[in-house]
Model the fold of this input.
Amino acid sequence: MSLRLDVLAAILAMAVATYLCRAGGYAVLRVVRPPPFVQAMLAYLPGCIFVAFLAPALADGGWPAWGAGTAALLVQARFRTTALAILAGVATLWLLRLVAG
Amino acid sequence: MTQAEEKDRRGSFTAAGMKRGVRAALALTLGLMPFGLVVGMTADAQGLSLLETLLMSGLVFAGTSQVMALGLWTEPAPILAAALTCLVINLRMAPMGVALGPVLDRLHGIRLWGSLALLVDNAFALMVAEMRAGRRDAGFLVGASMVMWVNWMLMCGTGHVFASAIRLPPGHPVFFASLAALMSVLVPIWRGASDLLPWVAAGMLALLAHGVLGLGAPWPVLLGALGGGAIGAARDLRAAR
Done:
């Protein structure tokens, strides 16, 4: 169970940088009142963040990943149970990879 | 402060909300397990001790940036590079705090800045769904985040301890679990047909940045999210005119 000083310094620097990201956006926008365009944009940001994260990740996985992602989405929409949606996604990816060879 | 505002503020952070958040997050932990294991295994492979691994996971609590920073780990530890990696990868969390304004605006001091310290993608998604349902209890966010933090610590520790025992190949379908979890959070976030154009635009822009321009993280996410949001806002403002 060692704790080296250089590793500790790197971890603390990572933690500070990450906290700046977590709190920074809110801290700035609290002081500055955004114009209507930015306010409308902020309403769309949450969904867009996830879509913009998922699209390249699925693209990297090829068509089996798109299929598996769709399966997870459909199962979640139908049953509203996240654990089930995750299982459906993983199982579908496994099956499609078998089919793809 | 009017009486209504006073009442509103009292319900801003409740134990009942925390309990609801804990329950909602427990359903999602399955999706975060494989990723935690991956981080623990990567940390072990880079020579970090269990204590160092847990310290990093507990304080940073942001898996993608941890994996990236560990990927460029050196001896001695790369302090500046690791910090910059976290800054760039976790920039996506800045707009999350902004989007949670209706919840956070009613908090002060440690409740406000502490809630932000625990902010993480999946808890954010759950809180957005809560907001859409008309509930603005920050206890929900903290309860959900705490479950994810405990799960994260357990899985990173487990991954480190059993690094050699559970050596799955990199592309194993189990690793799709974290993407499937994010896929499923799209369902409660969806507000209706008005989301379609911004979402499609966000996806296309991210694919363009990633596949065609070959940009690395976080640029596809930033371009896609900001571009999609801007297109939605432009359409709404034109319709309102």
Summary: The mean pLDDT of chain B is 88. Chain B touches chain A through 95 residues (CB under 8 Å). Residues 138-161 of chain B form the longest helix (24 residues). Residues 191-241 of chain B form one domain.
